[in-house]
Amino acid sequence: MLSLIKNNRSPRGSLGLDLDSGYLAAVQLADGHIVRTTSADLPPGVVRDGEIADVPALRDILKAFFKERKLPRRVRLGIANQQIVVRHLELPKINDPVALAAAVRFQADEAIAMPLDEAILDHHVVGEGMSPEGRPVLRVLVVAARASMIDRFIDAVRGAGLRPEGIDLNAFAMVRMLTKDSRPEQGATVLCHLGGTTNLAVAIANSCLFTRPLSTIWDEEGEHVGTALAEEIRMSIDFYMSQSDAPPVESVRLSGPGARREGLLEELEGPIGLPVALAEPLGALPGELAANEDPFRHTVAAGLALGAA
Description:
CATH superfamily of the largest domain: ATPase, nucleotide binding domain
Strand order of the largest sheet: 3-2-1-6-10
Largest sheet: 5 strands, mixed
CATH class of the largest domain: Alpha Beta
Mean pLDDT: 89
Order of helices and strands: EEEEEHEEHEEHEHEEEHEHEH
Number of domains: 3
Number of strands: 15
């Protein structure tokens, strides 16, 4: 598990909190079962393009939301916006964690177009291999996020009396949720979450190989939406495939509230040239969803809660 801030405690009844641009959604888990789901619309402009635009407004909304619903105060947050950079690095095999972290930071300074003294950096080893010269190497996933952006999330959450237990990428939560029963031999899958921010990830089994936010706004009117989204997904797949040793993509799965837009699956499948299907929003996670809740709002929140287990 890769996280931008961490707390070693993983309390029973962990709560994932998704602060989407259009709504906030919370999922509470206990012993791997859903015990609570709840959501509420957010006023326009409070969260914009995945970033907190109005900290005091979000603080007050969260305070009322958690008080009215009597939710646990320890939360795990997710983020997805343009202030995050995800890169894959290849490093000589290093067994010492401290030395590896130093090597990652040194190489990330050249690979990531962001001043690292203004960023929060984390990494996760995703595989091993051999260099062309026959030396063992590590394949490392590196995430950098601007500290000022993270601080706004933390200020809003702590101001509401909540305790952030960790911050993950929404893409990691989505992969964790939707690939729970996948196997490596099944090949790579594109997961595209259509919420207030359109977020894409390429995954094989439960490993996120590539992620980026997309600019297409799925809830606009007109026939151009499917065409624009298909083009962005296709370009993302092409960019992902330009990486060395990238496993080929075999399918595309949609999640999030926009995934059920009428005719969207058919609009995407032809231009992308791959099977496109609707993801099961809560995967195989047992438990009951509240009768008045849209399960497609809760994919990311459930994946965040899983990350605390």
